[in-house]
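Please decode residue identities from the backbone states below.
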């Protein structure tokens, strides 16, 4: 077996390393992203207007919530504005007082109700939601009714 000469080895190393070096020094191209606006509301899905944000220090949070098929979440309220996006499945939100219901499907966003007792009910498959909350540090984003278990 013949060994590479020092000259050939240096040439081979330069050929192999050059593309890596140029890739690392090329600045990225400036481009704008494509925004698909999923939700812009000043009221919840059931028509209740949002009054105001909390007056305490804000804290944003995001939850990915997976709910089994043929399930109903416990009755609960949210003290802060929040929004949901259905990643998978369907979710029917039920308002306890008015009896209003609305079903959201995969790819749909919804504005959750604030201080209205409600729950979500799934369909034939599991439902996966992405939930965002505009809350306050140390305060719950979901409050179960007395005697109900936590939503998550």
């Amino acid at each position: 077996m013949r060994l590479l000469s020092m000259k050939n080895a240096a040439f081979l190393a330069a050929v192999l390393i050059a593309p890596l070096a140029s890739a690392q020094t090329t600045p990225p191209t400036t481009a704008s992203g494509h925004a698909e606006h999923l939700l812009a509301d000043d009221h919840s899905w059931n028509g209740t207007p949002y009054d105001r944000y909390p007056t305490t220090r804000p804290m944003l949070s995001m939850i990915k919530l997976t709910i089994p098929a043929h399930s109903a979440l416990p009755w609960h309220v949210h003290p802060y504005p929040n929004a949901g996006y259905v990643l998978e499945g369907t979710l029917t939100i039920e308002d306890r007082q008015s009896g209003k219901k609305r079903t959201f499907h995969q790819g749909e966003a919804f504005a959750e109700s604030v201080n209205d007792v409600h729950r979500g009910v799934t369909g034939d498959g599991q439902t996966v939601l992405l939930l965002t909350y505009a809350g306050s540090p140390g305060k719950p984003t979901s409050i179960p009714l007395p005697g109900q278990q936590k939503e998550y």
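Observation: Residues 6-25 form the longest helix (20 residues).
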